[in-house]
């Protein structure tokens, strides 16, 4: 997947997270979990954009590692929303699937860049 497409995909993911959080019930638990999800879910795209502007391969890897962490954290918060019975599994299944795909592609990119760095050294 090219850079432009992945930027669009991570932005769409962030917007979907925003929409989900806006529809959460008005409870203390939903508010806390929703804020955490909002932070991590919107951070995925922001950090990917930062990675695209990396100054070196190691800088790109470091920034992509943040994308990896934030995508995984987003999955965690959505799992808590489901397991805490705040939302139904059906309501977040597509979003969790997308987060897992973004996570997998990010990990693959990190591995590729690390391999290229080792070969170049």
Notes on the structure:
- This protein is mostly helical and 121 residues long.
- The chain has one domain (3-120): 23S rRNA-intervening sequence (de novo design (two linked rop proteins)).
- It contains four helices and no strands.
- It has helices spanning 3-22, 28-52, 57-83, 89-120.
- α1 runs antiparallel to α2 (28-52) and α3 (57-83) runs antiparallel to α4 (89-120).
- The protein is elongated.
- The two termini are 26 Å apart.
- The mean pLDDT is 96.
Structural class: mainly alpha
Sheet with the most strands?
none
Approximate shape = elongated
* Strands, total number: 0
H-E string: HHHH
Number of domains: 1
Q: For this structure, what is the CATH homologous superfamily? A: 23S rRNA-intervening sequence
Beta-strand share of residues = under 5%
For this entry, what is the oligomeric state of its chains?
single chain
How many helical elements?
4
Radius of gyration (Å)? 15 Å
Low-pLDDT segments, ≥5 res: none
The CATH topology turns out to be: de novo design (two linked rop proteins)
Q: In angstroms, what separates the terminal alpha carbons?
A: 26 Å
Keywords for this structure?
121 residues; mainly alpha; de novo design (two linked rop proteins)
Write a brief caption for the model.
This protein is mainly α and 121 residues long. The chain has helices at 3-22, 28-52, 57-83, 89-120.
């Amino acid at each position: 997947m090219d850079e432009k497409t992945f930027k669009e995909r991570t932005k769409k993911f962030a917007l979907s997270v925003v929409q989900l959080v806006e529809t959460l019930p008005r409870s203390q638990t939903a508010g806390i979990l929703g804020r955490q999800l909002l932070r991590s879910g919107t951070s995925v795209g922001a950090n990917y954009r930062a990675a695209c502007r990396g100054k070196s391969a190691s800088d790109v890897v470091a920034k992509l590692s943040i994308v990896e962490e934030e995508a995984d954290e987003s999955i965690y918060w959505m799992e808590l929303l489901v397991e805490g019975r705040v939302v139904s599994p059906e309501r977040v299944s597509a979003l969790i699937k997308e987060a897992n795909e973004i996570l997998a592609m990010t990990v693959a990119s990190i591995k590729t860049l690390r391999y290229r760095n080792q070969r170049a050294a």
